Amino acid sequence: MTPEMATDLVNRAIFSIIEILLVLIVPGLLLGIVVAIFQAATSIQEQTLTFLPRMLLTLLMVVFAGNWLVQKFLDWFANLSQLIPGMLG
């Protein structure tokens, strides 16, 4: 395995991880900003008001994007299983 192959493999792994995490984290972040603006406007400082909607949205994102997430993992491991013999041989 050459250093170029190793860095390419790591780069693709990191890009895939970031892509998967962004699908789960960004909607919760945007909802958190909306809820924070609502809390600031109404002076309501309830902790469950920030936590519960973000948790439910993240769960919904896992449900709706779950097929895509699993497909990304399967594609990554299928590609990795094809690359391993070439790297070792």
TrEMBL record:
Coarse class of the protein's main subcellular location: membrane
UniProt keyword Cell membrane, yes or no: yes
Pfam families to which the protein is assigned, alphabetical: Bac_export_3 (PF01313)
InterPro entries for the chain: Bac_export_3 (IPR002191)
Cellular location(s): Cell membrane
Keyword terms: Cell membrane, Cell projection, Cilium, Flagellum, Membrane, Transmembrane, Transmembrane helix
Membrane spanning stretches: 13-39, 51-70
Top-level lineage group: Bacteria
Record's bilayer topology term: Multi-pass membrane protein
Stated family: Belongs to the FliQ/MopD/SpaQ family.
Protein name: Flagellar biosynthetic protein FliQ
Species whose genome carries this gene: Rheinheimera marina
